[in-house]
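My current task is to audit a protein record that another person submitted. What it holds is a sequence and that sequence's fold in token form. Thanks in advance; the entry in question is below.
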Amino acid sequence: MVFRHQIINVYDQKYESGASFWPDVNRRILIGLGISQLLLIGLLSTKDTAKSTPLLIVLIVLTIWFHKLCKGRFESVFVKFPLEDAVVKDTVERTTEPNFNLKEYLRDAYLHPVLKMVEFEVPKEIDEENNPLVATKRTTQRSSKTVSNGTAEDGL
């Protein structure tokens, strides 16, 4: 009960943006990389190293190609749905799954995993015949006539 209170009311939840800024960050990193490659070409062209300039031009072309690849592959994930597309998607889901109970699904959808009800397995009764642990009988040694040195009879 206390742990539930701590999770809900005390611990500050960090903001999670779902990586919505990643396309901008990726674009800025690759633009900075392209600018630095252009500056390197300019620097090396003043130092009489004409042999490396064609390789650096290929490097810029590869950087632009990589930017286009990342944009085409990952940007569609970060695009938000317009309302019309969301309505179309909802109607398609309703027709494919007509018995889907949305209230039941949403009841635990946004619940912290610690707070979800966990079903514990009830241990089955231990079969005494197949139990690997063997019960032993302990017998007392009160019937023996010898007295040990550390018994309560000595007063120790």
Notes: Residues 42 and 53 are 9 Å apart (CA to CA). Residues 53-78 form the longest helix (26 residues). The mean pLDDT is 75. Residues 20-115 form one domain.
